[in-house]
Amino acid sequence: MAENVESKENQNGRHQEVGHKSLLQSDALYQYILETSVYPKEPEPMKELREITANHPWNIMTTSADEGQFLSMLLKLINAKNTMEIGVYTGYSLLATALALPHDGKILAMDINRENYELGLPVIKKAGVEHKIDFREGPALPVLDEMIQDGKYHGTFDFIFVDADKDNYINYHKRLIDLVKIGGVIGYDNTLWNGSVVAPPDAPLRKYVRYYRDFVLELNKALAADPRIEICQLPVGDGITLCRRLT
Amino acid sequence: MAENGEKAENQAGRHQEVGHKSLLQSDALYQYILETSVYPKEPESMKELREITAKHPWNIMTTSADEGQFLNMLLKLINAKNTMEIGVYTGYSLLATALALPHDGKILAMDINKENYELGLPVIQKAGVAHKIDFREGPALPVLDQMIADGKYHGTFDFIFVDADKDNYINYHKRLIDLVKVGGVIGYDNTLWNGSVVAPPDAPLRKYVRYYRDFVLELNKALAADPRIEICQLPVGDGITLCRRIS
């Protein structure tokens, strides 16, 4: 999904450039939030990682600074200690997570691309939190299936963040619902898919946006209908749906 | 601040009618969130209270359904038991809170207007959670000052929600920062003030929007600069800033 950084103008359905990508009524409002409440409080390592990532050709995939701040607060509020992340890219949300967990916190982080992770790893090391991360290169489903089979991992995760291939979210969900603890949270990223969830049928959408949109629409319906969770779909970043496991 | 429910058309800076008031890029996107993730999961009692409130002339003051759902989830995630609410109106966020707390949970709820509270009270009673609520009619500052002077209330609140007179938020904050526990959360509502925080100087704003805007802008700066809290400003509803006390 290689995308070059392009002009700020928002073509219909096109994800905007890093730092200007939001679901809000204006970019001005989004910048206000970033400049008033996010950037002044952003930890130095996160700023550094954000800047490194902004130079990368696939940078639209990165977690935004406001989302990083939200994840950080959420993790502290729920006293998370054992977490999982599916989809790492250069590690912005991974770093946010690692900074939020206690010294003995643990993160199982999976991504098909190790190179991108290694781009951000020096910053994570400098921040002194690399020891919390167990990075596995490769697709997540086989790892999840093995954990399910093993039997020892049921209900052992406080928080799981999914920011990966949208056509597999429903497949991830089938496993994660057992791996997250009761009362724990699964967060699915990009569930508002650049607002394209409400684009009219004739709207000019980029191919990948249109392709994955169906999966996102289906996921949203499935999560709302799942009696094992309570949900909350927040318009932070590209839309995060928090799912709290009930049973 | 009496406002009649009016057409959905959004004049610059004017709060829109109940159910269509958001900071998002389109009303269609907001409706999508409500219809996909909020309404299907909304408890019966909250639906009922929302409908009663929609008929009230001051209904733009009400907490929106997506915000109610978010508060409800947040309270469960932090295992809140002892909370406070400043600004009740007909009680939608109060009901969301009462439903989220355990059976022995407690809410100190303050509003200058008892009549509006009594409009929603029958629904709260029917839901079986009225016993958790201690409602005090009158301004909140004297109550807070008394609690501070008493000395027994420092750090006793898990969560405090402020949805009241914007020109007093900073004054509330000076007291609440001692009353909320370390690690607890204060939530300030309407901190994006209908997006007017970024309206150009010549934008046609309603008098009350323009008047309170300065207070909102000052509050946002003050919260970001306050070293005793970590903040997160979410574009839910009219903007909620969560403040986690760290010292």
Automatic annotation (TrEMBL), chain B:
UniProt KW keywords: Lignin biosynthesis, Metal-binding, Methyltransferase, S-adenosyl-L-methionine, Transferase
Enzyme category, top tier: transferase
PROSITE patterns: SAM_OMT_I (PS51682)
EC number: 2.1.1.104
Keyword S-adenosyl-L-methionine: yes
One GO biological process term: methylation
Pfam family of the protein (one): Methyltransf_3
Gene3D superfamilies named in the record: Vaccinia Virus protein VP39
Similarity field: Belongs to the class I-like SAM-binding methyltransferase superfamily. Cation-dependent O-methyltransferase family.
Protein name, per record: caffeoyl-CoA O-methyltransferase
Species name: Erythranthe guttata
